[in-house]
Design goal:
The complex is a heterodimer of chains A (267) and B (300). Chain A has 9 helices and 10 strands. Chain A is an alpha/beta fold. The mean pLDDT of chain B is 87. The longest helix of chain B is centred in the first third of the chain and has 48 residues. With 300 residues, chain B is an all-alpha fold. In chain B, helix 5 packs antiparallel against helix 10 and helix 10 runs antiparallel to helix 12. Classes of the chains: A alpha/beta (267), B mainly alpha (300). At the A-B interface, strand 6 and helix 2 of A face helix 9 and helix 10 of B.
Chain lengths: 267, 300
């Protein structure tokens, strides 16, 4: 079976004041249907750019990005993004935010009650039906992110793109949301691409962890397969030798590529 | 204080507790605090009314004193009251022609502002949205707008008379041209400052440009738009009073000019108070509307 998503020799350059800087340098990656991929690397290594190429928000300079058999030429609801800072529209209620996505994609094809049902089903998946009438300003950061996930899921995307979805949350909320995402992934068999800074999070959630080298001219340095059986739990994961092996591998990779530490030892 | 009570009670553990109903004492202490807080609140509320009234009294008194000291100049408040009693107490009389109560003059001026300002609001928001979105339009037009917006309302009047040849449309044009600039400029700023995330959301959802305009751009720029509208409505009120002075007919601006020619200074002072109050109300109306519409926009 061909991969669902494939990046082939992708180069991304940005031009600013006439100076061209190369952000991604020859990145190739194939993602199969139902796979959960974590992307990890130091700040400024182009993780977000990679995700945005798949989202279609950033055009690539050379190479190709394919979803199924079609080239990615721009953003679309088949690649829903959960942004780091939730980016819910603050003038709409929780329900209206999800409904905006539902209406845009299924409006005209389904009846009003079906559209309502869709919005409510997705809000129920993230356990947010109790707050449908609230505005984003009235709910906590974790809840906002859950609504952001519901909005993305409501688009029934082929690939779900998570851009450091838990980055701005406290550890406890973070854990809850990780559980939620794991449950969703196994339940709806979603294909997920997630950017993270957190090694444990990367390993716990993913089937494969993609490690990026430092930018500029960042590329994929290493990919580690996480063969821990699912369902996984945070508690038992730390006793799983496979989990610890993956974790070890990633930490040592990141340490090798830690510019700051290198400069300190060189000095 | 409840804290002291607790301390006292725990000081002598061996001796029997004193025969005082501590809960009653606690309740009494709390009641005292609540009463004090209530009193503070009442005093605070009263001062928002008393202080303005007090200062108004001081201003009126010193005005009266000055008028008494320099007879033949501006009339004092007492003089204004005796001169213009009918104008003050009955704003609704109508003896035909321009001999009407101030209410009718104000109403005519307000209707001109209503029309001119509404056109300015629609044109200003659309133009501002365009300029805020399209880079070359902003670069090309912004310098011109920055210059034009500083042209005083009355300077537009001869041009608009030459262009439109009639008083009524000229007055409307002057209102329009005066109030449109702050609306355009503020809307453009608001549109340019729409967070990238909201734009990305609309791109992922593939919102149609018209959907984007109504669902994302307008609500996101609402606080800025209303800042522009508020400045705009104030300026259009300035413009109408000034332009009516030159155009004649019914209207509060003409009324003031007419009374000046008739040397009825007291009437002018009454009209000024009206103009000020109406301008204040206009400003508050637009601000209140903005508050209502942008509710939740700022909350994030």
């Amino acid at each position: 079976m061909p991969p669902l998503l494939s990046l082939e020799n992708v180069y991304v350059d940005f031009e600013r004041d006439g100076v061209i800087s190369s952000v991604l340098d020859n990145v190739s990656l194939s993602v199969n249907t139902g796979e959960y991929i974590s992307i990890i690397g130091h700040s400024g290594c182009g993780k977000s750019t990679l995700l945005n190429v798949v989202a279609g928000l950033v055009p690539l300079t050379l190479g190709a990005a394919l979803l199924g058999n079609r080239e990615i030429t721009g953003p679309g609801p088949d690649r829903a993004v959960v942004f780091q800072n939730h980016s819910l529209l603050p003038w709409m209620t929780v329900y209206e935010n999800v409904r905006l996505a539902v209406d845009k994609i299924y409006g005209g094809k389904e009846t009003l009650s079906q559209l309502h049902e869709r919005a409510m089903t997705n809000l129920d998946l993230v356990k947010m039906t109790h707050a449908i009438k609230k505005r984003p300003g009235e709910i906590s950061g974790g809840m906002k992110q859950r609504v952001g996930i519901a909005r993305a899921l409501a688009m029934e995307p082929k690939v779900l793109l998570l851009d450091e979805p838990f980055g701005a949350l406290d550890a406890l909320t973070r854990g809850h949301l990780q559980d939620t995402v794991m449950a969703l992934h196994s339940r709806i068999k979603a294909t997920v691409l997630m950017i993270t800074h957190d090694v444990d999070e990367a390993v716990l959630l993913a089937d494969r962890v993609v490690m990026m080298t430092n930018g500029p001219k960042a590329t994929i340095g290493k990919i580690v397969d996480v063969r821990c059986p699912r369902p996984r739990s945070r508690l038992s994961a730390f006793q799983d030798p496979e989990f610890l092996r993956c974790r070890q591998e990633i930490v040592s990779f990141l340490e090798q590529h830690d510019k700051v530490a290198k400069e300190l030892t060189d000095a | 204080m409840p804290f002291d009570l607790v301390k006292k009670a725990t000081m002598a553990p061996s001796s029997p507790p004193p025969e005082v109903d501590r809960s009653a004492l606690l309740i009494a202490a709390q009641k005292k605090q609540i009463d004090a807080a209530r009193l503070r609140k009442v005093a605070e509320k009263a001062s928002t009314f008393i202080m303005p009234a007090l200062f108004l009294g001081i201003v009126l008194a010193s005005w009266e004193a000055t008028a008494q000291a320099f007879p033949g100049g501006l009339p004092g408040p007492v003089q204004v009251w005796t001169d213009s009693q009918e104008l003050i107490t009955d704003p609704f009389f109508d003896r035909g022609g321009v001999d009407k109560g101030l209410f009718w003059h104000i109403l005519t001026s307000l209707s001109r502002v209503g029309i001119g300002f509404s056109i300015a609001a629609v044109v200003g928001v659309l133009a501002g949205a365009f300029i805020g979105t399209v880079g070359w339009a902003r670069k090309g037009l912004d310098p011109m707008f920055q210059v034009l917006r500083t042209v005083p309302p009355l300077a537009w009047l001869p041009i608009s008379l030459a262009m439109l040849r009639e008083a009524q449309p000229s007055a409307l044009f002057v209102i329009f041209i005066t109030s449109v600039w702050p609306i355009v400029i503020n809307t453009a700023v608001g549109v340019r400052n729409i967070p990238v995330d909201y734009i990305n959301v609309s791109r992922v959802l593939r919102l149609h440009p018209i959907e984007f305009f109504f669902k994302i751009m307008l609500p996101a720029a609402t606080p800025h738009i209303f800042t522009g509208l508020r400045i705009g409505v104030g300026m259009s009120w300035l413009a109408i009073v000034a332009s009516e002075m030159l155009l004649g007919g019914v209207g509060v601006g003409f009324f003031i000019w007419d009374q000046y020619n008739a040397a009825r200074i007291s009437d002018i002072i009454v009209a000024l108070v009206w103009v000020g109050l109406v301008g204040f109300v206009l400003d508050r109306l637009v601000a209140g509307l903005g508050h209502l519409v942008s509710r939740g926009t700022a909350a994030d």
